[in-house]
Fold each of these.
Amino acid sequence: MSGHVTISALDIADARAIAAMNVRNRADIERVSPPQPADAYSEAAQVARISSILRECAQGLRAHWTILVDEALAGDISLHRIYRGPVQSANVGYMVDAPFRGRGVATAALRLVAARSFTHLRLHRLDAEAMPSNVASLRVLEKAGFTRVGVMRGYLFVRASWEDHIHYELVGPDFVPPST
Ligand SMILES: CC(C)(COP(=O)(O)OP(=O)(O)OC[C@H]1O[C@@H](n2cnc3c(N)ncnc32)[C@H](O)[C@@H]1OP(=O)(O)O)[C@@H](O)C(=O)NCCC(=O)NCCS
């Protein structure tokens, strides 16, 4: 691994840099994501998207970080569908800017998020899914200690069809959840 990987809480001031990063990685994002509106890659759309994400973060429904390598923006990583009560789980997703790939950045960021999930965020499990064709993402999950659970048939509508995904999980330490 070359460079020091850190994660930083998403900020509205990141919108311009994230918009530019998403434009650079558009083909890769579209290969693994549901269809987006035509203007989704504009800076204005990113401001709106990040504002919405930050509202959900403030409500405790998700958490989102930028990934930095030696202070330079290199990607983003998020927890969504944060469920509390007796479940205490979240779903994780990530993207690394193409010039930073293949040097352990996603794996390092995912390990940081997992550690934070099981300490500060008091979660009990993380789930993640990747398409069978997304070999890099499957490898990231395995390197970060996630366990393959099985195939989710037609889990997500990607581009023009419902795509199977491999479901992974990482279970944290046991604790007694707060009563609801
Ligand atoms: C998936 C993604 C986040 C990986 O980021 P990254 O920083 O390059 O990941 P890492 O360097 O930590 O690990 C990648 C691993 O996959 C391996 N890999 C990458 N492409 C591969 C391929 N085509 N075949 C086999 N292995 C491959 C790398 O060799 C590395 O494994 P290694 O350390 O054992 O050599 C990045 O490719 C990306 O952002 N893709 C587009 C968005 C995406 O797919 N997000 C995930 C949605 S589930």
Amino acid sequence: MPETPGNPGVPGTSGVFANQGVPGASGVFANQGAAGAGASGVFGNHGVPGSTGTGAGAGAAGVNLPALRSHNAALVLDLLRTAGAAGISRLELAERTGLTPQAVSKITARLRADGLATEAGRRASTGGKPRTVLRLVPEAGHAVGLHLDRDELTVVLCDLTGAVVAERRAPLDLGAGADAVVEGAAGEVSALLGGVSPLGVGVALPGPLDHTLGVLHRVTGFPEWDGFALREALAARLGLPVVVDKDTNAAALGVAVGTGAASGSGSGFAGGGSFAYLHLGTGLGAGLVIGGVVHRGARTGAGEFGHQVIQLDGPLCECGNRGCIEVLCLDAVGRGALAEAARVLGAGAGNLVGLLDIDLVLLGGRTVAAHEEVFVRGVGAVMEERARREGGGAPVPVLVAPGGARGVAEGAAQLLLAPLFGRGEG
Ligand SMILES: [Zn+2]
């Protein structure tokens, strides 16, 4: 396992998390080693961090066991995060986590000593002395989110709450070869950082790829990436922990965690619900969140939404198959037939809703952003038709995903941040 770099510029970041055993930290750093896949295992994709093997702690309730300290610390940190600047008292923390007040005091003392939490004043309480409220210190840690699209790169620096504090954009040719892409991306990350030492870099790009190993597969349109160990290459170049995921999963994670732009838009998607994030840009893919957790599947290949065949012997797709929803959709967009593209997308969304019984369909990506109304209306019409046909209530809502053009990059930063708060990841 490569060494975790120190964080001289930012007190209380990776060293702190590593010492505390906050689940996210171990997940993140486990991804660094060649044996990283074994660290989480099959159950790591589904269980609550820190509770694997005990069967306890599934759900939000805390467990007063020393072995689960890291899980509990993540619960407390997450409550501090969601309480925002107003803060939350220790008593409320105990009530919300189900932990004893003593356990909460111990955890918050440690978080304060590490610079992650601080006092946010006092609040009157009914019949007792005023209670001290605590809040998260957003600037106590940062993560980089890097979105590599086929023709453009976006990189953001986020604080612990997921808020973007710096951003860069640059043209990118994903077909320019691994050396050029890695070098270009590393240069943009370094330029973004200034003197800040982040927890690590989350990278999001078109799939398919292996999230656990950080190895790319035959990225649609760029088969030459097959087998390239992007995580290892970027980690070696930057000297930072790196996590790689599909653009769609990163964006879905960002929405599920509900920070940054997502919370700014007043979204209520962070409540453990199930939704599909459909991304239509240079390609078409889906990020699936089931029960508040990104569903990646056993080989982290889930969400290859764009390459479901919906027209036998249809036009040839870049993936090698015929009649994929992606090629039909992109062809229609290319012809300017946006309503038809929306209808095709709606057909795919309807299939997903029928298969997974999800609560919500979110649309994102550059093509959707340029024609929001057409796509929301077109996909929504398919959902309405579906609801009429099947009965049983209102159609599944279709909305534009929060986060806008930065949604994927912000979500990529959450690949490192969310696990610290026990959120969004199994
Ligand atoms: Zn295809």
